[in-house]
Amino acid sequence: MDLNEVMAANLRRIRHGKKLTQEELAHRTGLSARHIGAIERAEMSATLTVLGQISEALGVGPAELLTKSD
To answer: Is 61 exposed, middle or buried (0-12, 13-18, 19+ CB in 10 A)?
Structure first.
């Protein structure tokens, strides 16, 4: 599993855990729902700036999005 796939899985898991839709997360980050969806499907890599926006909007540290879970 590459880092994009790790982030995709973690983003989806955390977002669902906080009961947010992609649209709600997009609104909180200033990104489009299409962009959030592409990251969640590992079709697009997140820049460091986007990683920061997403982690802040979710209330988690950036490392939590990038850490491979067992």
So the answer is: exposed
CA distance 70 to 66: 13
How high is the pLDDT of residue 70?
Answer: 67
| Integer CA distances (angstroms), 34 to 22, 27, 38, 46, 64, in order | 8, 12, 6, 13, 22
Rounded Cα gap, residues 23 and 17, in angstroms: 15
Q: How far apart are CA 65 and CA 2, in angstroms?
A: 13
Mean pLDDT rounded to a whole number for the chain = 96
Q: Give the tokens for residue 15.
A: 């977002």
